[in-house]
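Hi support team,

I submitted a single chain yesterday and got back a structure, but I'm not sure I'm reading the token output correctly. Could someone confirm the output below corresponds to the sequence I sent? I've pasted both exactly as they appear in my results page.

Thanks,
R.
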Amino acid sequence: MRIVGGAWRGRRLAAPADGGTRPTSDRARQALFDMLMHAPWAGRAVIEDAHVLDAFAGTGALGLEALSRGAARATFFEQDRAALRVLRANVAACGAEACCTVREGDALLPPRAAGDAGCGVVFLDPPYGLGLVPLAVAALGAKGWMLPEALVVAEMGRAEAAPADGSLLAERVYGAARICVWRMGGQRERRCR
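Hi R., thanks for writing in. Yes, this is the structure output for that exact sequence:
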């Protein structure tokens, strides 16, 4: 696994040896960030200088990819101890400690965010098949971690239903994974397949 674009392109990322995490594949991450950087409803301005949240962070690949492509800072939530060790090592390997906050804890039970901690881009990559995406959106939103018009990127199992919050902007399937992108606060509106 590696960073696929931006300033840290090609930098290798570690993954826990126990197989307890399921990192987003390089191919799916490349396609996702290509879409985010070039879509008319997103574009470079959405990522560059943004504060991003990588919940259920695992290795931190999504948040680190965003930083590599110009995000200003990233906050990571992870509760698995082995994944936390790898996440911290990946942040250090990228030299990103100054712009990263790693929080040990459950994205479904987050602490209240500090006044300026609201994130404009939120990555959710929970275990598949447990219906955790809507629960995480509700919990993170209630505690101030998401800006009202945040762009949410959720990776879930292929058979899981698309979230009902906000405007669904994109939906893609990569093997067993389904990635949905929507904007909070908008009316439910389907803009692509």
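A quick pointer for reading it: The longest strand covers residues 146-157. Let us know if anything else looks off.

Best,
Support desk
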